[in-house]
């Protein structure tokens, strides 16, 4: 490799990275191998996505085979069997009546697709004034204009103009002092969902199409919803005829110890966005699962032959479908969602054992997700966490940091001794960091 100049890296301090690059060269099971030949234990499933562990033979072979049989086929007004086979299989694990699948290539596209379906659905059923979209503070729904509009991360929004109009935000669910060091769902704060009533009172329900939330907000530092919060959101949405969209790009595919967050919380959304674990990240893919009711409205009420003017060249790409089928087979054959559930308590105890570690001011968890919040260094927010990240990497552990929060999400194949190793390295790294 001659130069690092050409690749403008995403969500990266390019200048700092290129001065001290970290390059990964191989991956297998729970480990990456760095370009200088070190084994790096993966505590983040790559980027919350390699849920079945790296380099799964079944997935590799499925992709190789499909690449040789048919590299690409369009899905606009044409089809190929794998896209139908894959969505049929995926539909089989979707909760409630979310059985109709629209395919995208990423989580960002899934979020934008769901928002567009919500708007088109309202119009299709004669509720064309319902155009407002409600997101939440500290939400991440990818980087499309729809996603950043309903998202709640100021730096992802502030430099990109006025974004979508007619968007409002719920308050985030974090920060109640009585919820510090909660194990699993925090006890307090279900009433934060009542903010939706205030938004309805302000704008009127007749103008609101949909609410979108992550069941557990991942990217802004593992914000687990208070007990009863999501149920309450559902009730308020029902009361005012508002769609509820769950963005499960992170919480999908076993991360919480059930197929989807909707299963885990027992709350029925009208749509689920997914990506990442859908193909174990081996080929990019995303999807939106839509309730039969929404889908059927399009099929019955559309006045144009094409019911939804939306789609991507690569919606249902053959390689992604092949990877997706193999991935769903692995999840089922290895019982990985149940495995995540059975490890959740061990995981909880392990990461909460860091309560007395240096700089730690909060810890939270659900399923195989963990967030460890550090006291920010005065006048230098994020600096401490970034140093901890570097130290962990030097000690052979890949973690993820967001702000001053360590966010952990190991592959669902993780062993207990590997969880112990993760916790020990993080403790050491915290200790060594001023
Ligand atoms: C909840 C959520 N939605 C959407 C996205 C965006 O996905 P992608 O990066 O595949 O576009 C992410 C990525 O982390 C996410 O966590």
Structure overview:
- The protein has 15 helices and 15 strands.
- The chain is an alpha/beta fold.
- It has 2 domains: 14-56 and 335-432, Alpha-Beta Complex (Aspartate Aminotransferase, domain 1), CATH 3.90.1150.10; 61-334, Aspartate Aminotransferase, domain 2, CATH 3.40.640.
- The longest helix has 18 residues, at 107-124.
- The radius of gyration is 21 Å and the shape is globular.
- Bound molecules: pyridoxal-5'-phosphate (PLP).
- Pyridoxal-5'-phosphate is lined by residues 48, 106-108, 111, 140-142, 214, 218-219, 247, 249-250, 275.
Using brief descriptors, characterize the structure shown.
four-stranded mixed sheet; globular; Aspartate Aminotransferase, domain 2; alpha/beta; Aspartate Aminotransferase, domain 1; 15 helices; binds pyridoxal-5'-phosphate; 434 residues; 16% strand
The side-by-side strand order for the widest beta sheet comes to 4-10-9-8-7-5-6
Average pLDDT level:
97
Ligand names: pyridoxal-5'-phosphate
Question: So, CATH architecture of the largest domain?
Answer: 3-Layer(aba) Sandwich
What does the main sheet amount to?
A: 7 strands, mixed
Described by its quaternary structure, the protein is single chain
Give the CATH H-level superfamily of the largest domain.
Type I PLP-dependent aspartate aminotransferase-like (Major domain)
N- and C-termini, Cα separation? 35 Å
The low-confidence parts are none
Total count of domains: 2
User: H/E series, N to C?
Assistant: HEEEHHHEHEHHEHEHEHEEHHHEEHEEEH
CATH class of the largest domain: Alpha Beta
Q: What is the CATH T-level topology of the largest domain?
A: Aspartate Aminotransferase, domain 2
Please tell me how large the radius of gyration is.
21 Å
Residues in β-strands, percent: 15-25%
The helicity comes to 25-40%
